[in-house]
Amino acid sequence: MTPVVLDGKQLVPELVMEVALDCRAVILCADAAERVSRCREMVEELVAAGKVVYGVSTGFGKFSDVHISPQDAAKLQINLIRSHACAVGSPLPEATVRALMLLRANALAKGYSGIRPVTLQLLIDCINLGVHPVVPEQGSLGASGDLAPLSHLALVLMGEGEAFYQGERLPGAAALARAGLKPITLQAKEGLALINGTQIMTSIGTLTFMKAQRLAQIADAIAALTLESLRGIPEAFAEEVHQARPYPEQIGVAKNFRTLLKGSKLTTRQGEIRVQDAYSLRCLPQVHGATRQVLDYVRDKLTIEINSATDNPLLFPEDGQVISGGNFHGQPIAFAMDFLKIGMSELANISERRTERLVNPALSGGLPPFLSRNPGIGSGLMITQYVSASLVSENKVLAHPASVDSIPSSANQEDHVSMGTTAARHAVQVVDNVSKVLAIELICAAEAAEFIGADGLAPATRALYEKLRTLVPPVVDDRSTSADIERTADALLSGEFLVAVEAITGPLY
């Protein structure tokens, strides 16, 4: 693959995922390099002139009124990183660290941060050579940037801290040396430029969004298989119904269902078995479509954020201004992550209700109780619905908005914070739970299809069913299905099922 060219303006979530997961290389475009150099010259002129600039000739936070001499400018930045590197918890996954390194490099490439070109290049070299700082996941308030976690990234550039390299956890200096790189000594403004930003919450959020988008698409196919197994009525997806309430996302999801169910011999017509389906089947375009609205909102905010300068102060060489502002405040991403949690939780809520209809003999329209082949002696898939209910209940706790909380910091100088990184971390857990809830529905729907005749499935849902059967055999006799659920959830997240379905349907909405 050709390298991703960073210019601070055109990064999109799909490219972030390719760098994070596929280790696609990164280069800095010439225009961005020129902007970075010009901005750095301005920093050096300010230091030489003895101008008062926050974080360059002053302390940080409440210490912004403390003057720092030019002789101590470098020491100030080094102390900043060492003192702020106090995050705790498990290390972020290496893919997330690659994403945050990319996002930080892209923000610096905008040319407003005052970083030296050599420091930015070292960050890019670490991405390309696989030096991944050990970044603990907890400790950010999501305003003044993700200070504590990002400081662990900066430590490695200084030859301190720890990093993963080729699967081994090493001291930062050793990891750099093995990759053939040399640490740098931070100069004026550079420590602040590296840590004053929203890249932790945004990197977590971007990778989680990409997984969520994939789950939202395959959820339509899983629900279509369930509808067939319950002999549902596809007339609820008629185009004229959804044009009468013209949400684009609802219209798009309804079209998906018409495509997915085309050629099915298992669906029924109004009045043939029942006049109307339950809401968890009939209202699929309305509910799944509303989740797509959430995802559209989240994509928009993430795309803006990953192409933003989010540190402070910002330097504008064109007119010689240095402006202290608040672009480091994570409120837009905090809201987006909380919204993502809510939208994805609902995708799981309605999926669990469909699973209940599949296993409950009072609701399944004649399917064996709990899809057991020997009811009574065998419990079949009874307890998978319990697991699904547990996961959706957990999501309701996780979906509580982190963004409504704020605790003042730095002696009340930083008196309102976003808690955006907490929201993003909880979104990871929600999306992981959703993948398992959908996996349970898929396993149950496939089992139900065998009872009513899988040969009658539509070509698209038949492809979904057959793909599942390469991972999960029929539950002929009772067995533990934990590994089946986990394996299926992983394949849903990886996109394997979506590829199988879209080979029949073409790209779904």
Strand-helix topology:
Elements lengths: L3 E3 L6 H10 L3 E3 L1 H20 L23 H12 L3 E4 L2 H15 L8 H13 L1 E3 L2 E3 L8 H11 L4 E4 L2 E4 H7 L11 H6 L3 H31 L9 H5 L4 H13 L18 H4 L1 H22 L8 E3 L4 E3 L7 H29 L22 H17 L21 H33 L6 H11 L12 H13 L1 H10 L4
Parallel strand pairs: 1-2
Antiparallel strand pairs: 3-5, 4-6, 6-7, 8-9
Helix pairs in contact: 1-4, 1-9, 3-6, 4-5, 4-9, 9-13, 9-14, 9-16, 9-17, 11-13, 13-14, 14-15, 14-16, 15-16, 16-18, 17-19
Quick rundown:
By secondary structure, the protein is mostly helical. It contains 19 helices and nine strands. The chain has helices at 13-22, 30-49, 73-84, 94-108, 117-129, 147-157, 172-178, 190-195, 199-229, 239-243, 248-260, 279-282, 284-305, 331-359, 382-398, 420-452, 459-469, 482-494, 496-505, and strands at residues 4-6, 26-28, 88-91, 131-133, 136-138, 162-165, 168-171, 314-316, 321-323.
Supply database-style keywords.
509 residues; mainly alpha; Fumarase C, Chain B, domain 1; Fumarase C, Chain A, domain 2; three-stranded antiparallel beta sheet; two-stranded parallel sheet; 55% helix; 6% strand; cytoplasm; Histidine ammonia-lyase
Description:
With 509 residues, the chain is mainly alpha-helical. It folds into two domains: 4-197, Orthogonal Bundle (Fumarase C, Chain B, domain 1); 205-505, Fumarase/aspartase (Central domain) (Fumarase C, Chain A, domain 2, Up-down Bundle), CATH 1.20.200.10. The chain has 19 helices and nine strands. It has helices at 13-22, 30-49, 73-84, 94-108, 117-129, 147-157, 172-178, 190-195, 199-229, 239-243, 248-260, 279-282, 284-305, 331-359, 382-398, 420-452, 459-469, 482-494, 496-505, and strands spanning 4-6, 26-28, 88-91, 131-133, 136-138, 162-165, 168-171, 314-316, 321-323. The relative contact order is 0.12. The model has no long low-confidence stretch (mean pLDDT 95). Its EC number is 4.3.1.3. It is found in: Cytoplasm. There is a cross-link at residues 143-145 (5-imidazolinone (Ala-Gly)). InterPro entries: Aromatic_Lyase (IPR001106), Fumarase/histidase_N (IPR024083), HutH (IPR005921), L-Aspartase-like (IPR008948), Phe/His_NH3-lyase_AS (IPR022313). Its main location: cytoplasm.
